[in-house]
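Batch manifest, entry 17 of 40.
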Amino acid sequence: MKSFFAKCLLISVALSPLCTSATVWRVNNNVGASANFTNFDAAVASALVLNGDTLYLEASANSYSTTTLNKRLTIIGTGYFLSGADANTGLQANTNVARLGSALSWDSAATGSRFFGIQIDGDLWTDPRADSMVFERCRFLAAPAA
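Output type: structure tokens
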């Protein structure tokens, strides 16, 4: 009986990488750049991008448009303070930030999404049923309410 359970465990461990896979997608809106997507909303809306996938938002002088996030994704940007008085100069080939330029919203299907190193220039709108959203090393620059 122990042998049977040991074989079952071994088979399940061996097959587990086949059952889980997340894809990394590049998003770059710079002219002439070679990436999977040129805008953030197209990447989120794509049927190819699935729950658990990662979107790399690359440095750009132009902000990325936003949409309602309706998938559990990891979104990784370039960080911030890449230029100017507070910068760590000389560390980046492109000192532009990865910036979401308008309001960012998400629904309950985005529960568990994670954001790293993104600058968000607009408001945040959330579905109250969404939880476990993680924002690390992000910069929020939404205009204060009048």
